[in-house]
Design brief:
Largest sheet: 9 strands, mixed
Helix content: 25-40%
Number of strands: 18
Radius of gyration: 22 Å
Structural class: alpha/beta
């Protein structure tokens, strides 16, 4: 291996995984995480929720269909670093604009490949998410970092530096970074229909008629409060006929009310939800106005915090396109796309709120419906590109809530179902403890 291709990741616990370099070169520190998606790597790279994180793809071959700018979720790449087992140098797709390597270089993102991503993922699952440092190339800074790994005293100092890294000002760094969608709702619907990304009803069938899909949303205005919004959230709102106005995370309740919205969309975003003190304060004021609210991912967590619930960090989070969630009101299980490291604590959900979705793997909160004001939220991504599309019907529920503020008033999840899920979760936890997992 020549010096020009030498690269590695150094984890905060001292483990080193050495491989080869692609993309940009240099030295960066970030929070090391993994995602299990088999496709959708373009959306992963451009999802603002990954701000500050070094992302490992568990699927072994990434880059097969190259980079397609039309599929970007935001205007830039937000990951700190990118790790894959293998990357495809000759992608094949009629929409391909450039290669993965060229894109990472253009965004100054360090890439690492030819390591055992299964072994790295196992460490992050068993020990938990931790900080890491990517070292790549042959600059003076890189050589100094590599030399530090050979000296015990210098390596200790390097590990202390890695451990000290903290993701800060996450939302402030990515707000209003969503890709602009200048096309009309009709054009957005037509383009989505080419790839069968039309609205999916709750029964699983698709609505291919734009007139029917947009009928109930026409004439209604939604404010998209951008904490790092994925572009497809706006597309899904437009496909239902809604007018969408995007505002930055710094917007006040007064500024949002001045827009006279019929509904408020709380977007996804990065970082610890508890860091967003100002947003939570403004949201509390908005909730008093009884305007319909729909929250996704970080928006779900912020809405819960504003309502009196608590959040905590998960051991290694949920990231991937294959997370099963159970809708407690019907008992049906859906497959969802997720990207989060924090969760709302089930036992902290306040009066006037009902647990609506749970993760069937670990029993954590995946959704809340509020019964004292018109609002609901989910931890997963119903707008997910490149899918799954199972839960996109929740955008239709948002339209129904806008037209009927009492739509969720009588929503009740059966207590025995909630109890069974809690029992299921505690059983999993007990089994893992017994096995020493």
């Amino acid at each position: 291996m020549s010096d020009s291709t030498k690269a590695c990741i150094v984890l905060a616990n001292g483990l080193v995984f050495e491989g080869k370099s692609f993309g940009a070169t240099g030295v960066i520190t970030g929070e090391a995480v993994f995602t299990t998606g088999m496709n959708g790597y373009i959306e992963t790279l451009t999802d603002p929720s990954y701000f500050g994180q070094i992302v490992t793809q568990t699927f072994p071959l990434i880059g097969n269909y190259g980079i397609i700018p039309k599929d970007f979720e935001s205007s830039a790449c937000h990951v700190r670093g990118y790790i894959v087992r293998s990357w495809c140098e000759t992608p094949s797709n009629f929409r391909c604009g450039t290669t993965l390597d060229e894109y990472l270089k253009s965004q100054n993102i360090i890439g690492l490949y030819d390591i055992d991503t299964r072994a790295l993922t196992k460490v992050l699952r068993e020990v938990g998410v931790m900080n890491g440092m990517l070292i790549s190339g042959n600059s003076a800074e890189v050589q100094e970092a590599f030399e530090s790994l050979k000296d015990e005293k210098k390596k200790t100092a390097l590990l202390e530096k890695i451990k000290a890294y903290k993701i800060e000002q996450a939302v402030e760094s990515v707000t209003c970074s969503a890709t602009k969608i200048e096309e009309s709702a009709d054009v957005v619907f037509a383009e989505s229909a080419e790839y069968r990304f039309v609205p999916v009803r709750s029964d699983g069938t698709k609505e291919n008629d734009p007139e029917k899909a947009m009928k109930d949303g026409k004439g209604k205005k939604v404010v998209l409060w951008d904490f790092g919004a994925k572009a497809n959230i706006r597309r899904e709102l437009l496909k239902r006929g809604l007018e969408v106005i995007t505002v930055p995370s710094t917007a006040t309740a007064q500024e949002i009310m001045a827009l006279n919205p019929d509904g408020i969309m709380l977007s996804n975003g990065p970082g610890d939800p508890q860091d967003n003190v100002g947003i939570i304060k403004e949201l509390k004021l908005l909730l008093e106005k009884k305007i319909p609210v729909f929250g996704i991912c970080l928006g779900h967590q912020i809405l819960a915090l504003a309502s009196g619930a608590k959040t905590s960090k998960l051991k290694y989070g949920h990231r991937g396109a294959n997370q099963p969630v159970k809708y407690l009101n019907t008992g049906r299980v859906y497959i969802s796309s997720q990207n989060h490291g924090y969760a709302v604590e089930n036992d902290s959900i306040p009066a006037g709120a009902v647990l609506s979705f749970v993760n069937t793997n670990d029993g954590t909160c995946e959704g809340i419906t509020y019964t004292t004001f018109p609002a609901f939220s989910v931890q997963f991504h119903p707008e997910a590109c490149s899918g799954p599309l199972d839960t996109s019907f929740l955008f239709d529920d948002f339209v129904r809530l806008i037209n009927n503020h009492d739509y969720f008033k009588d929503f009740k999840a059966e207590h025995e179902r909630i109890d069974s899920i809690k029992y299921f979760a505690s059983t999993i936890k007990s089994t893992k403890e017994k096995l020493g997992a």
